[in-house]
């Protein structure tokens, strides 16, 4: 059993755990998971849930005698989403927050940043974010397609350090354990190679769209971005006792690099700079010495036509100091530069937060 540590985790839960009969939501497998989430939060850790099951949860409320059409599945999802969220909420004293996304939301820069900011605020206010694909409106070209990969995308956008995928088997095996009695569990995977992909079978259950391959795909995305990934058996309550002790009773895919390094590389080398924000010496010291966010009071000038979510460079005395993602566009920033954060709403009539560039989205340049 491998040991691991974490601070912010995304926990992906599939349809087979949410609605094991394929018709209604159930608490059958969720009580141990809910206790794991509650105790982890009490220990100061942060948890985001990616939950399948809306279509399965609503299937029992839409009576049909033929294969469901897209519209019928979307109707099931619309009904089942309410059932699923109510089922989650009954396990927790904290508020549960619903976030519905499509693939387009993750591809679009502005919407991606908005999702990240929403998750950040929910965690700040100690809510439990519950993410699901928006099956009520998404069609094939707009769908992520499976919640394993949605879990990976959520871990990336949330800047988590860990993705935990709850499956109906113990982890990745040398062969399909349901067909081969000699199959053995692989406790640690340090590199996802073609041989690892070759171990993946097809879809696991009739209700889920994902199988082991989609879990490996999700692990591949995450580990290359510095996020360790676990596959565990969500039907075994003892699994969550082990996770609380920092032990992985399933398969642990180790991260290729630290998540901070991954984010730094993304910000420094991948994103094209759209503008420059000039800052004063006080803001420079706060950013370099204390790792602080950039506040509007420290902004002295703006150049370039950038919008919220664009990458900008921070300059002080004509020298490039840092690079980050702007929460306000250039036009708005021209109005609030030099002002106190509590004046943003008064000046603009709205606000996207009290900072101009959040420290989570900021990297110092060499």
Structure overview:
By secondary structure, this protein is of the alpha/beta class. It folds into two domains: 260 residues, Carbamate kinase, CATH 3.40.1160; 94 residues, Archaeosine Trna-guanine Transglycosylase, Chain: A, domain 4 (Roll). Helices cover 37% and strands 20% of the residues. It is built from 14 helices and 15 strands. The strands form three sheets. Strands 4-5-3-2-6-8-10-7 form an eight-stranded mixed β-sheet, with helices on both faces. Strands 12-11-13-14-15 form a five-stranded mixed β-sheet, sandwiched between helices. A two-stranded antiparallel sheet has the order 1-9. The longest helix is centred in the first third of the chain and has 20 residues. The protein is globular and about 70 Å long. About 2% of the residues have low confidence.
Structural category: alpha/beta
Q: How many separate structural domains? A: 2
What is the approximate shape?
Answer: globular
Distance between the termini: 40 Å
Low-confidence spans: 202-210
Level of helix content? 25-40%
CATH topology of the largest domain: Carbamate kinase
Would you state the CATH class of the largest domain?
Alpha Beta
- N to C succession of SSEs: EEHHEHHEHHEHEEHHEHEEHEHEEEHHE
| Cα-based radius of gyration, to the nearest Å | 22 Å
Tell me, rounded to a whole number, the average pLDDT.
Answer: 87
Q: Count all strands and give the number.
A: 15
* Proportion of strand residues: 15-25%
Report on the biggest sheet. 8 strands, mixed
Number of helices: 14
With strands numbered from the N-terminus, the spatial order across the biggest sheet is 4-5-3-2-6-8-10-7
**What is the level-2 CATH architecture name of the largest domain?**
3-Layer(aba) Sandwich
By CATH's scheme, which homologous superfamily of the largest domain applies?
Acetylglutamate kinase-like
């Amino acid at each position: 059993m491998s040991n691991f540590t974490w601070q912010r985790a995304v926990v992906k839960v599939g349809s087979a755990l949410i609605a094991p009969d394929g018709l209604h939501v159930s608490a059958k497998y969720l009580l141990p998971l809910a206790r794991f989430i509650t105790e982890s939060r009490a220990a100061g850790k942060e948890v985001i849930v990616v939950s399948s099951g809306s279509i399965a949860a609503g299937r029992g409320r839409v009576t049909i005698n033929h294969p469901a059409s897209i519209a019928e599945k979307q109707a099931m999802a619309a009904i089942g989403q309410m059932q699923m969220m109510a089922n989650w909420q009954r396990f927790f004293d904290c508020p549960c927050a619903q976030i519905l996304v499509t693939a387009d939301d993750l591809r679009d820069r502005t919407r991606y940043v908005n999702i990240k900011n929403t998750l950040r605020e929910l965690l700040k206010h100690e809510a439990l974010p519950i993410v699901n694909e928006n099956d009520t409106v998404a069609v094939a070209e707009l769908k992520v397609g499976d919640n394993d990969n949605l879990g990976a995308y959520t871990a990336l956008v949330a800047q988590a350090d860990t993705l935990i995928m709850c499956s109906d088997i113990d982890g990745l095996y040398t062969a399909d354990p349901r067909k081969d009695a000699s199959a053995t569990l692989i406790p640690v995977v340090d590199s996802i190679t073609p041989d690892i992909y070759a171990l993946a079978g097809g879809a696991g259950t009739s209700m889920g769209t994902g199988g082991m391959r989609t879990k490996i795909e999700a692990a591949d995305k995450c580990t290359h971005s510095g996020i360790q990934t676990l596959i565990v058996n969500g039907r075994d309550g003892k699994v969550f006792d082990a996770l609380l002790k920092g032990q992985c009773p399933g398969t642990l895919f180790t991260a290729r690099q630290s998540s901070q390094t991954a984010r730094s590389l993304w910000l420094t080398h991948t994103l094209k700079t759209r503008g420059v924000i000039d800052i004063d010496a006080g803001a420079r010291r706060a950013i370099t010495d204390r790792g602080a966010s950039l506040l509007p009071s420290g902004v002295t000038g703006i150049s370039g036509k950038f919008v919220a979510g664009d990458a900008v460079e921070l300059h002080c005395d004509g020298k490039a100091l840092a690079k980050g993602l702007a929460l306000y566009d250039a036009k708005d920033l021209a109005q609030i530069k030099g002002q106190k954060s509590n004046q943003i709403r008064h000046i603009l009539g709205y606000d996207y937060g009290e900072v101009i560039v959040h420290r989570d989205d900021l990297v110092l340049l060499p």
